[in-house]
Amino acid sequence: MNAIRQKTTAVLSALALVLGMTTTAQAGLFNTSPIDTWEGAGAVFNNAGGSGVVVWFLILLALMLAVIITAARTEKRHEREHG
Q1: Residue 52's closest CA among 63, 60, 43?
Q2: Of 3, 8, 25, 42, which has the fewest beta carbons less than 10 angstroms from its beta carbon?
Q3: Residue 24: alpha-carbon gap to chain centroid
Q4: Helices (H), 28-51
């Protein structure tokens, strides 16, 4: 049990370190843009009118259904095995 706690503590510490480094790097990016006015700025919609959004939405739905079906099957199997 002690080895599990040590491993968990090490993983959580590493995660906190990575998150802290990421936050510090992001904070350093503020106020570094050469653009100082929004005059003349326009909007660009990369997938406007295309089928890319629909394709990714369908992929998302398929993955969600796969997870739900797999979880339901696993739950049913464990219920049969362990009553």
Answers
A1: 60
A2: 42
A3: 20
A4: none
pLDDT at 60: 96
Q: How far apart are CA 18 and CA 14, in angstroms?
A: 6
State how far the Cα of 11 lies from the Cα of 3, in Å rounded to an integer: 12
**Token pair of 14, please?**
């590493």
DSSP conformation class of 30: T
Residue 82 and residue 75 in contact, taking contact as beta carbons nearer than 8 Å: no
For residue 66, pLDDT beyond 60: yes
What six digits make up the tokens of 6?
Answer: 């040590």
Stated as kind and residue range, the H or E segment containing 20 is helix 2-27
Tens of pLDDT, residue by residue over 5-18, are 777 777 777 777 66
Full-model pTM: 0.44
46's CB contacts (< 8 A; 6+ apart) are: 52
How far apart are the C-alpha atoms of 32 and 35, rounded to whole Å?
9
